[in-house]
Amino acid sequence: MARDFYEVLGVSRTASQDEIQQAYRKLARKNHPDVNKDPGAEERFKDLNEAYSVLSDPKSRARYDRFGEDFRKIPEDFDERVAAGGGGGFRARGPAGGPGVRYATGFGDGFTAQDVDLEDLFGSLFGAGAARSRVPGADQEAELPLTVDEAYRGGRRTVTLAGPAGQPRRYEVDVPPGVTDGQRVRLAGEGGRGSGDAPAGDLYLRVRVQPDPRFRLDGRDVHVQVPVAPWEAALGATVPVPTPGGGTAKVTVPPGSSSGRRLRLRGEGMPNPRGADGDLYAEIRVMVPPTLGDRERELFEKLAATSSFDPRRT
C-alpha cells in the first residue's frame, strides 16, 4: 500500500515549502543508515527521500496533490494537451469496472473525482496508443547532507535513495571540493523513467552542509572562534587555528587583542575550483582559568593592584 507523502514527512497538506524542508532535514538526520542502525531506518530513509523529492518541487507536488500516487503516469503537460485536444470521449469506470486512476479532472464535465482508465483517457485525448507514447522521464531532486569537512575535501560519496518500486538504490557521487550549501550535483539519466523508449530524467542532489560546532560558513568564507589566554591576548602570541578538512593554520594574535577581534587568513576558507578560494576569519575569544592556584591568584592580585586599565572606561 503506497504511503501518503505528507504522512511520511509528518506535515499537513497545506504545509509550506519551509515546513516540508525542516521536517525532512529532522527526520533524515534521525533515520540516515550511517547514523541509525535500526533495521527499519533504511526503509524509512528511502521513504523520506521519495516523499521529499516530490513535495519539495512545486510542480511535482501540484501533480501529486491532483492525481495521487499515480501522478507519474500523467504527462507534465497534461493540461496543455487537454486544452489542445478536448476532454470528452473517455470512459469513466466505477469500482466494478476494473483498475483505474483516481483523480480530479477539473474539466467541468461532471468528472470531478472518478476512476478513469489511463489507456482510455490518453487514447481519447491524444489518439490510440497514447498511453504508451514516448514521454521523457521527469527530473528529480533529493538532498545530499555533507559535513563541513566533506564539503571542503569533496571526493566520492555513496548515497542511498529510494529507487524504482520503492527499493533502496545506491549511487556513487563525485562531490567537487569546496561545494557550497544549495549547490546541485547532477546525475544524468538517474531521474524518473520515461515511457516507451524515451530517455530518463536527471537526478539532482542538492547539497546541504550540516551545522558544525567549530565553523560558521558564509558562502566560501569560514568563521571560527579562537580561544586565547588573557596573557596571550595582552602580550600577543601565535596560536593554532582549525581549518576545514581537518587541518590547522597558525594565526598571530597582536598584543592588546580583545574578544571579538577578527583576524583574516586569506585563502584558508572553502576552495573554489573556478576562482579565488574563500578566506578564514579567526575571531578572538579571551578565556580565563575556571579555577586559580595559589600562585596564579597571587599574580592576578598583583596585576590588579598594579594596572590602571579599566575595561568599562575603554
From TrEMBL:
J domain location? 4-68
Q: Which SUPFAM superfamilies match?
A: Chaperone J-domain, HSP40/DnaJ peptide-binding domain
Keyword annotations? Chaperone
* InterPro entries in the record: DnaJ_C, DnaJ_domain, DnaJ_domain_CS, HSP40/DnaJ_pept-bd, J_dom_sf
Tell me the SMART domains matching this sequence. DnaJ (SM00271)
Composition-biased stretches, type Low complexity, lie in 249-260
The keyword Chaperone is annotated on this UniProt entry: yes
Q: Which PROSITE patterns match?
A: DNAJ_1 (PS00636), DNAJ_2 (PS50076)
Q: Looking at the record, which segments are called Disordered?
A: 167-199, 239-278
Keyword Zinc on this protein? Answer: no
Protein name, entry field = J domain-containing protein
Per the UniProt record, the source organism is Streptomyces katrae
